[in-house]
Amino acid sequence: MNVIRESARAWPEATRVVLHLQEEIAARVVDGEPMIAEIGQPVPDAVATLELPKPVLAIWLRHVG
Amino acid sequence: MREFDQDFAALTVAVRFVGIGDRAKVDEFCGRFNPAARCIADETKATYAAMGLGDYDLSRLQTDPALQIRRKEANASGFRLNMEATIMDDATQLPGAAVIDRDGIVRWIYRGIHPADLPHMRVMLDATRAILT
User: What's the total number of domains in chain A?
Assistant: First the structure.
């Protein structure tokens, strides 16, 4: 019974976390900002901070030795 | 790259290289091959993540057929991996490229599947020309 009671107490918290995540994801979609670059979409914010000239071919190198 | 400078200039398309590290590190590395002004530093790799460029499974370094072929090509051209300069955290980072139009819209993306997986500049020039003209 203790296990059941503990589980019951835990569920509301888990539900709250899931709902919060859903809101976070929905907010990003509403803002129209893709988390990862997609063809046909504006560059993500992180890439916009690079202030690339446009139009541009941008090449992300594997690493810098 | 320099052999294609005029082609990209004729298209009025800029070319920029993003590297991992601070400004000085990227300038030093990139400046060996191109004017440093074309190089942009990304110390946190945030833009790599934003472009969807993943990490390579290093356990495949010696067994990945595509990587083996590319390594032979690079060795034949006189290039060698500088292990002393390779930071393991960076070594897993996969490369990539993108064409971004004048409105800031992503028009083409190439995401590498192994550490040496970038198209030849000729291929990227052709892709750029086909997309933007």
Answer: 1
Within 8 A of A65 by CB-CB distance, chain B residues are 29, 82, 85-86
Q: What ipTM, to 2 d.p.? A: 0.85
Backbone angles phi, psi at B108, to 5 degrees: -155, 140
* CA atoms of A36 and B52, how far apart (whole Å): 6
Closest residue of B to A42, CA-based? Answer: B105
Predicted confidence (pLDDT) per residue in A10-39, tens digit: 666 666 666 666 666 665 555 555 589 999
In a domain, A34, yes or no: yes
Write out the residue range of the structural domain in which residue A33 sits. 2-48
B49 contacts on A by Cβ (under 8 Å): 36, 46
